[in-house]
Amino acid sequence: MQRKTFLKALAALSGVAAAALLAGPAGAQQAYPNKPIRLVVTFPPGGAPDILARLFADKAQLGQPVVVDNKPGAGGNIGAEMVAKAPADGYTLVMGTVGTHAINGALYSKMPYDMVRDFAPLGHVASAPNLLVVNNDLPVKSVAELISYMKANPNKLSFGSPGIGTSVHVSGELFQSLTGTSMTHVPYKGRQFAIPDLVGGSIQVMFDNMPSALPMAKEGKIRALAQTTAKRSAAAPDVPTVAETVPGFEATTWFAMFAPAGTPKDVVARLNAEMQRVYKLPDVAEKMKTLGLEPWISTPEELSAYQAREITKWAKVVKDSGAKAD
């Protein structure tokens, strides 16, 4: 009887151990996240990347807080580099932009990270036109008038941007290239430093992100001439596109989230699923649209393929314009 009792106890213990082993990997997967997640924004507060990051942080239901961390500088390279070199555990993410993940590699001779190899794509978040806006005192009210003025006054105007390599910057370079005009580029450390100078007249032109520029244009603080996407945005249906005057002009700003390369696939899937949920919420989608942002939710694989095409496109634009960050 003692032997039978012993064997039963041993069998029971073996079953518990086997169950624990089987549950181990699943338990480990369920453990993510078990501490706060840092979402790095590579530009100062107030711009589209920051708005999108904070929408995610406010609405995410991951069991842990998402903390937005603004790390601006070097056209977004400072913040992106931090994430590229962070542990690949899903606790440090970046709200990437067309600049940090498609343009900067062509602009900077020495990049602190590889735009593709150092990151695991999580998915697109949104896209937006840039808005060609001018100082109210500039005597132009259309793209055609701006081109005529620039040709009559070469190098007289200055255009601002929140940093070298941003979509705002290369939109201006593309405009000059396609119209045969010339302006002086003035890079700032963020749009919040450029806009007061635009309003005050120290700079006269800017291809600002629509979510930032549209409210100010509606308030009459600056004048909107055109938007940079191929088709007019529903947020500003009365504002023409640059392409309506300059055929072939198109510059789309996009935003997407990335994690460090090597982040486990189950973590990537978990984050993408939460992104899909958050950015499809009716109130979030409505907020984005009122700001001129178009919700654009994709899979990691779709983002990877699109990023490759964008890198090729903008490398040509940068080469043709002769723009360099250093």
UniProtKB/TrEMBL annotation:
Taxonomy, superkingdom: Bacteria
Name the UniProt record assigns to this protein: Tripartite tricarboxylate transporter substrate binding protein
Alphabetical list of Pfam families matching this protein: TctC
Signal peptide: 1-28
Keywords, sorted A to Z: Signal
Recorded family membership: Belongs to the UPF0065 (bug) family.
Organism: Rubrivivax rivuli
CDD domains, A to Z: PBP2_Bug27
